[in-house]
Amino acid sequence: MSDGSSDGSTGEPVGAGDGSADDEPTDDEVVRTAAEAAEGVVFAHYDQSAVTDLDVTVTFEEGVLDVDVYLNAPDDPDPDAVAREAAETAGEAVDELFEA
């Protein structure tokens, strides 16, 4: 097992549909959606028992989503690449949430 750690981060603004606050998901929904998407990517690549450490930190403030993924897992596949994919997928999941 490697000591592969990674910090995949996205700090991009998230767009909202027509600008109506009533249509927008809550901050909690945004955070939960991003975290679940990131974890889903990690566990699609690794068995849960193979992951030594996983920390997904999501913040959503003033329309800006920030996702940090720390992953300590075996070297195959590359944990850094998986962490980056997880962070990117989290952002995409939130974009889809706002488009719905």
Describe the structure in your own words:
With 100 residues, the protein is α+β, with helices and mostly antiparallel strands. A 3-stranded antiparallel β-sheet has the order 1-3-2, with helices on one face. Helices cover 40% and strands 24% of the residues. It starts with 7 loop residues before the first strand and ends with a helix. The protein is elongated. This is DUF3194 domain-containing protein. InterPro entries: DUF3194, MTH677-like_sf.
Concise overview:
By secondary structure, the protein is of the alpha+beta class. It contains two helices and three strands; from the N terminus they run E-H-E-E-H.
Count of helical regions: 2
**Distance linking N and C termini:** 40 Å
Largest sheet: 3 strands, antiparallel
What is the assembly state of the chains in this entry?
single chain
Name the helix and strand elements from N-terminus to C-terminus, one letter apiece: EHEEH
How are the strands of the largest sheet arranged? Answer: 1-3-2
The helix content is 40-55%
CATH topology: GMP Synthetase, Chain A, domain 3
The Rg value, from CA coordinates, equals: 14 Å
Q: Which stretches of 5+ consecutive residues score pLDDT under 50?
A: 1-6
Identify the CATH class. Answer: Alpha Beta
Question: CATH H-level name... which superfamily?
Answer: MTH677-like
* Number of strand elements: 3
Shape descriptor: elongated
Number of domains: 1
The assigned structural class equals alpha+beta
Mean pLDDT over the residues: 86
Q: Strand portion, in percent?
A: 15-25%
InterPro entries: DUF3194 (IPR024502), MTH677-like_sf (IPR035954)
Protein name: DUF3194 domain-containing protein
Region (Disordered): 1-29
Pfam families: DUF3194
